[in-house]
Design goal:
By secondary structure, this protein is of the alpha+beta class. The chain has helices at about 1-15, 135-140, 385-390, 390-405, 425-460, 470-480, 485-495, 500-515, 525-535, 535-555, 560-575; strands spanning about 20-25, 30, 40-45, 65-80, 85-95, 100-105, 110, 115-120, 120-125, 145-150, 155, 160-170, 175-180, 190-195, 210-220, 225-230, 230-235, 240-245, 250-255, 270-275, 290-300, 315, 320-330, 335-345, 350-355, 360, 365-370, 375-380.
């Protein structure tokens, strides 16, 4: 009996733990000075394999704070006691208070398996606000920069992407932001990805609109905790010129694993090395040739040490000319770097040109890859051998070229005689053209007469009876009705083909067509309409989805999994809105 009771208790505990959702939010402390940063931690814990969040964290009203940073991470583990999959989604938000006193922080909402969960609201006490000289005090409308780096834990010399956003309540301030200056620091290598401004997102954090003004890659070249310095920009107006500075971001730079080859320097990524002879003529002793060492791949390509050609008594080597064809990729700078060497052979016969040994660290596989030395085998000829190997045609051509270059020959000029024919006017051609024009004019008059008669017949037909206002509105809405499933199928094809630019253009077109069904011109008006027509949760979900679309659209790193999740969210929401 006792064993049965224990078995029942274990079974009851497993049933309770299966499918459990825990959501909570907390701050690092309850009282802050004016200069302190309020750090909020949001944790969503899912116990079970059938639980899947349908929305992102829906934040409360944070207009009494300045959002200066945010980040998120996901942890997955299996509880050995219950053999249950546990997924933790953790987000952190750094806030700067705008006023003192007791401030209430509302609830965070998230939808899991069609059920809405929320956190408990709580208060934080701000003792005293220390006035800071920022652009918020210099301008009547608040405007500030925020640097966001999602992946803050990388290896040394591995790339991470930084996105620079400007926030303001007045959209007119966005056009004033100019001269973005990327950070410079000895322990960082920074390369721009895109310095063009994105479209303005009206649904930013804290009731502020936002705009992406720069995207760049950061390569930390030392391990440990590395601070990415602030990015500055200027805000110009007719009266004065102000400077705004973003926040700093701390990176946790992991040291490269032990066991690297002796000749490993700083190449991190995935690369390939190739050596070839760029000269097309036969190789002659004491005559220069061009040998190219090409390093291609993706990673810290512009900043790494290239493998050099090893010196040898068989040839003389000179300092190379470096040319690069590099563009931003998904995990680093992608392209190729060419080292053009001038080499002069010193002996006739077989010559072996070798490069230094080369190895790189691949962050994807977490291991070092050794490419070793690259060898180029050449065969050099003496001057006499070159002369003997020439064919009769080559000798004649060389003799002719030498003769033309050294002997002055007279230039023979020829005159082309042209016979001028007497011009004559053709009356037959003129009469034919006039007849064609008259015929076309008569056909045009007959067509207009037939068109008028057809219009009169339609007007004399009996008019259809007019319906009520509701029936008329329904008929207009049916005319404007958009087949949303056609958009879904087209978006699925664009996603499978990897045409992400057309994918996001089609999303904007679909959103515009859906708004036209309800006679709403802008997304802001449509969101207010949805709040009264579909409810607050659908309107908030629509706002978050538009913000997510903008983030994915201007993200330099687009993955098929992220686009797949975005498409699912779009189908889920617009299927309900368009009904």
């Amino acid at each position: 009996m006792q064993h049965k009771l224990i078995y029942i208790l274990f079974l009851f505990a497993s049933v309770i733990s299966y499918g459990q959702v825990n959501l909570f939010m907390e701050s690092d402390k309850s009282e802050y000075n004016g200069k302190d940063i309020v750090n909020l931690t949001i944790v969503l814990e899912l116990n079970g394999i059938d639980l899947e969040p349908q929305t992102r964290f829906q934040l409360p009203d944070l207009s009494k704070f300045n959002i200066i940073g945010s980040g998120s991470m996901t942890n997955t583990l299996i509880d050995p006691a219950t053999n249950t999959l546990i997924t933790q989604k953790i987000s952190r938000i750094a806030l700067e208070p705008k006023k003192k006193g007791k401030i209430k922080i509302g609830s965070v909402l998230v939808t899991v398996n069609n059920k809405i969960y929320k956190t408990e609201p709580f208060d934080v006490n701000i003792k005293e606000i220390i006035e800071k000289r920022s652009l918020a005090s210099n301008l009547a409308n608040e405007i500030y920069l925020n640097m966001e780096i999602e992946d803050r834990e990388v290896y040394q010399d591995q790339a991470t992407v930084a996105v620079l956003r400007v926030y303001s309540k007045n959209m007119d301030n966005f056009r004033k932001v100019k001269d973005v200056r990327l950070p410079r620091q000895d322990n960082l290598n920074v390369h721009p990805v895109n310095l063009n401004k994105s479209e303005i997102d009206p649904s930013g954090a804290g009731n502020m609109a936002s705009q992406v003004v720069a995207v760049f890659m950061v390569f930390p070249n030392e391990s440990g905790y590395v601070d990415v310095p602030s990015v500055s920009a200027s805000v110009s107006s007719y009266s004065n010129k102000n400077k705004i500075v973003s926040n700093k971001v701390k990176l946790n730079v992991k040291k490269l694993p032990e066991g690297s080859p002796e000749y490993f320097k700083n190449a991190v990524g995935n690369f390939n090395v190739n050596v070839y002879n760029a000269s097309k003529n036969k190789i002659e002793v004491d005559k220069p040739i061009n040998v190219i060492v090409k390093v291609s791949g993706e990673g810290n390509l512009p900043d790494m040490h290239l493998p050099k050609i090893i010196s040898s008594p068989d040839y003389e080597v000179f300092t190379p000319k470096i040319t690069s064809k590099v563009a931003p990729g998904t995990t680093g700078m992608k392209g190729e770097i060419l080292a053009n060497y001038v080499i002069i052979p010193k002996k006739a016969g077989a010559i072996s040109i070798q490069t230094e040994q080369f190895a790189f660290f691949d962050p994807a596989s977490h291991e070092y890859i050794d490419l070793g030395k690259k060898t180029l085998a050449l065969n050099a000829f003496s001057h006499d051998q070159i002369l003997e190997s020439r064919t009769t045609v080559e000798k004649v051509n060389e003799y002719t070229n030498t003769l033309l270059e050294t002997v002055n020959t007279p230039v023979l000029k020829t005159t082309t005689f042209k016979v001028k024919e007497k011009s004559k006017f053709h009356w037959n051609i003129l009469l034919t053209n006039i007849s064609i024009l008259i015929g076309l004019f008569i056909m045009y008059l007959l067509f207009k007469t037939w068109q008028k008669k057809r219009t009169l017949v339609k007007e004399t037909a009996s008019p259809k009876p007019l319906g009520s206002v509701a029936e008329t509105e329904k008929q207009i809405r049916e005319t404007l009705k958009t087949d949303i499933n056609d958009y879904f199928s087209y978006l699925e094809n664009l996603k499978d083909n990897g045409d992400y630019q057309k994918f996001f253009d089609t999303l904007e077109e679909m959103d515009m067509d859906v708004r036209k069904q309800y006679f709403q011109s802008s997304s802001q008006e449509f969101r207010v309409f949805l709040e009264s027509y579909k409810g607050l949760s659908v309107a908030e979900e629509y706002r978050n989805l538009l913000q997510r679309i903008q983030m994915e659209k201007y993200s330099p790193l687009k993955s098929s999994e992220g686009i797949e999740e975005l498409l699912k969210a779009v189908v889920n929401l617009y299927s309900r809105i368009s009904k």
